[in-house]
Amino acid sequence: MSKLTSSKIWHELKTHHFSINNLHLRDVFDYDEDRFDKFHIEWNEFIFDYSKNRINYDTITFLCEMARKSRLKFAVRDLLAGKKVNNTENRAAMHTALRNFTVEEIFIDKINVKSQIEKSRNKIKEISNKIISGQWKGHTGKALENIINIGIGGSDLGVKMAYSALSQYHNNIKIHFVANVDRRAMMPIMRDLNPETTLFIICSKSFSTTETLANASLVMNWMIRSGVSQSDFDKHFLAVSSSYEKCLEYGIKKENVLEVWDWVGGRFSLWSAMGLALSIGIGYRNYEKLLKGAEMADNHFAKSSFEQNIPVLMAMLEFWYRSFFQTNARAVVPYNQDMKYFPDWLSQLEMESLGKSVSKNGEKLDYKSSGIVFGEVGTDAQHSFFQILHQGSDMIPVDFIAFAEYDPLDNQNQILLANFFAQAASLIKGRTETEARENLLRKGKSIEEIQDILPHKVFPGNKPSNTIIAKRLTPENLGSLLAFYEHKTFALGHLLGINPFDQMGVELGKEIANDVLLELNSQKETHAFDSSTNALINWTKK
Ligand code: F6P
User: Which ranges of 181-309 would DSSP assign to H, the alpha helix?
Assistant: First the structure.
């Protein structure tokens, strides 16, 4: 048995779960009119409402006690102080340093990195301003119009999501994102591009990711075919990477490379120069506001008590459901079309960080780590997976997110918000058999007709959710929201005893893909793999 599952607090939580498991959220709300007041936090322009969870005061007390016993406070201190919290790679995870505008000195490995960070921010600012103002010219002297961000995973998802989320701040420069090695990702974008007015940003921390390098070669060849000489590449190519040398090998000049450091994890890298395309697309001033919003959330995370700490509460609730309700998944549903890539970003953040089966020290876990995180914008999601949320056999907690851009004259927005509030309310309440019968009778059905259909019309309810509402979708609020989820991931990793900052689970498939590539390129039949893989490769080659 692990230290966690044999601990006193685990047993207390287990017993507590037993006592609370039969309580229905409908009843607890009926019984306690002040429930919302007790279980919500107002912070800056946000409300975090966690009252629709299967908890009571004792649950929070036990969970906070567990967090205290796990020394979470010290773990947060170490994270923010630049200690090597990524133990398997012997690195700090200092993404918070990138959005710190307050302190004079930031030490990582005894080196003050503050000036490097400021230099990088200034370079982002300078490039953004030059491109937006038209001062940056392509090889024929024309101002730029299109920027293509080429990167994958953490070098794509965050910046793409934030650019989409902040559509109201877009300027004259159009930003496109290409991640997949499938040519179909690049082709539709390239079709409409003029090489004279296009700039590519090759984003790869390692500068060795197959997909990114293949796409980089594709566009470099296209530029050459379009008559752009290699000596003019500095007008059309930038790179963001931790390796100048590898960028140089690709023909990108040192001055055109923006650095990221090994203490910035891929999925936490939006705050580094990986956010360059965003800064170009919304202007540096707005980009800086995003960073400052995240900094505010960092301070909240560092300084608030666990009981008042939004990311810590989010982490503890997830721990509660996974460990004691045995949930397998959590849904995230932003009611805002501009947030369409948010679930993708969050899936990588949480699942790449916490989808592990061994502890920080390599011991096999005897409890659940990260579940599946999936989502879609509302109301689209209501017409795809909401059936399973309401009536499926699993309990799937939901994070509902919206921005209270309330406008009684905008009927469509009113419909959107109505659905946002209604879904969370109906998930807790459900519909009993009696209510379902009355509802059908009201609709004019006969008793006989009702008999067969009735079981299908019952909603069990008691389905938990968090609700996050911010006043507006501004760069500051987006920055805070993203930082909350990052810290939630870190805090949950800590409670689970997992290192959230490595991703070794992505390596094996990549290695085998290299072996398969050799076989695909060979004339001979392959016998290198299992019978299924061999047969499929050979069939494909024929
Ligand atoms: O998917 C694995 C991963 O290593 C991610 O963590 C990372 O964000 C992505 O690949 C891209 O890596 P790079 O920036 O080095 O190209």
Answer: 183-191, 210-225, 244-249, 276-282, 284-303
